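Practice problem: predict the structure.
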Amino acid sequence: MKFIKDFKPGDRVADIYMCKHKQSATTKNGKEYYSVTLQDKTGTVDAKIWEPGGAGIDEFDAPDCIDVFGEVTSFNGALQVNVKRARKCSEGEYDLSLYLPVSSKDNDEMFRQLLSIIDSIGNPYLKKLLQAFFVEDKAFIELFRKSSAAKTVHHGFIGGLLEHTLSVTKLCDYFCTAYPALKRDLLLTAAICHDIGKTKELSLFPVNDYTDEGQFLGHIVMGCEMVGEKARAIDGFPELLKQQLQHCILAHHGEFEYGSPKKPSIMEAVALNLADNTDAKMETFTELLQNVTEPGWQGFNKFFETNVYQTKID
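Answer:
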């Protein structure tokens, strides 16, 4: 099959892709069309069905796999597929593994790096807590390594939670070298644990949607509870240390308007918020530019609330 990452303007598309999103919309002239996001393991691409009631357009919805015939075009500097025919496929016609987005980085290597950082933690209580999650809890480890970090926006792929966690932890480790006042053991433990609640907030692919628990509580509260539960099982775990760690998790979104139950009150919480925000924004911009065909202005982006630009150097 031709993977989305290899699409170029002018290409003919005649293959099976997963429908990640489908929405009915209306043109300025009042004509209905479908706006569709097609997905395979290499990425996503915007698609349009301009004649939704026409011959050759079957009924389908997300997350169906559909046999698509169309042409790749470029619109406002980004790839778009003009779909002429679309047929919902039956099980057995496709290999699902080809359509689930997966981190481009090696999962085993990322997890080895995370375990190496855990080994470097000196505080015995924090080290035991991390080992309770990432060495001893096999069910948690399986979920953590398969989970995405989000439904949309950034790291929304298998292994995304691990990739995001490792990046945030590495940024925090650098902060500790630049700002020696930071307590490295506390900050790195908080970084490694800051999004563990997402293993409960989001279901695994191919669904990758919010669970009931995720809707009611959210990953921040659930992560705080998970850390508290593990800490209580460790004999003699200092109460103040537990509270500081939980505070970092509760405050890692930084502002109330961004869903943070607390604003950062300690230096480590500020550092974690900055690292989390940095990695989220850099990955979001990276994913935004994946399907850009030409450098220059790419149009208004709702997440960044500005017109975004693909850098070009003459």
